[in-house]
What does this fold into?
Amino acid sequence: MGQAAALDEGTAGGVITNDQASDFHTLGLAGCMDKLTIPLRQNGVFVRWETPHHGVEIPAACAVLLYQAAQETLTNAFKYAQATELTLRLAAVNHGVRLTITDNGVGFQSQLLGGRKHGYGVCLMTMAVHEAGGTIAIDSAPGKGTLVSITLPLD
It folds into this structure.
């Protein structure tokens, strides 16, 4: 199986499968995110996972959205950005939770997002975050890597 296929395996195009739903119940968001990074680590990507959210209760709908956003972002970092290092950080913020993912990949021109050839998955992710009342920021430049920050309200 190819490296990119290993990352995509079992994700069903961003839909949470029955196995993943069971994982959410037993592992929680942090455990599921850690499991999501296994194929990356197996392919030589250094992954740093920080969770200073201090036991904040994250509702299931928020957890699923954060997981799906991480899935999309990590897939893009591996498939397109050729990242060798990733940092995932999940932190409590004012009345919400923020997921930040940074990579050391090739980067891209942020203004190209949403164009015909770029960003379909990112566009869907952005729509889902906005629908949940959250915000998303993507900062990237050629040769500079990418930072994706998603903030969701918990009220």
